[in-house]
Amino acid sequence: MINAAVIDETRTAWAAEADWSVIVPFHNERDFLPATLASLAAQRVRPVVVLVDNASTDRSGELARDLCLWLGLDAVHLHESRPGKVAALQCGLEAVTTRFVATCDADTLYPEHYLARATRMLEKRGAVAGVAAYSAPSARLTARLAGWRMVLTSRLLPQQCLNGGAGQVFRTAALRACGGFDPAIWNWVLEDHEIMARIEPLGRIAYDARFVCHPAPRPRAVNCTGWNLGEQLRYHSTRAGERLAYFHEFLGPRLRSRALQSAMLRRSVSVTAGA
What we know:
The chain has 275 residues and is an alpha/beta fold. The chain contains 9 helices and 11 strands. It is 35% helix and 19% strand.
């Protein structure tokens, strides 16, 4: 049983017809939530925002509820006491009723066309997931270059996850069919890459040069290196059909030996984690 409680809902009757849910897990993100939620409120495709307070101690949850009311966002507010992003994402996915779902970080800005573009990507035949490029929010040329670099890389390394969970979108049915986010399956860092290895056999992972989001420039929240260069190179050289074994038989035991649980992602220490 998922240890979650519906704290509050601010949804209109329209929300029942929504195509998109956006899961935003957070732990002590008061400084970043206002800008992130404002960017989601400005979407051309209106989402239901599923906010998962992962035991914040800075009253981020109260701020999020106030912001959703002020911005007119259709929102579900949840509390997840199990530490870690994987548990928070699992909690959020339980509340999703829409055909598409995005995982968004509480410190990331999403251009107003973000979900509209994601819709077009996922409606293409065979697409079950998509991944956005990252760039600085104020540099249009940089964003364009980041998007094209991502697309070109995806042609060299098809069906691989080339970026993190701040910019991932899914067909909800496919995400659930592969097991979704579940600490019993994977409760280590790099959950954004592992989930793509599980969803990959169900269809195509889509990329688009104009599908970009803008993470805030800040230190990472975990004092670890994630995966080292050798482990990354081994991942990128792994063939389709073998990537799930790579995570569960090769990388998982290594992360376990380094004690890199998902819960470490919410610690407030500087890092240079792999993405």
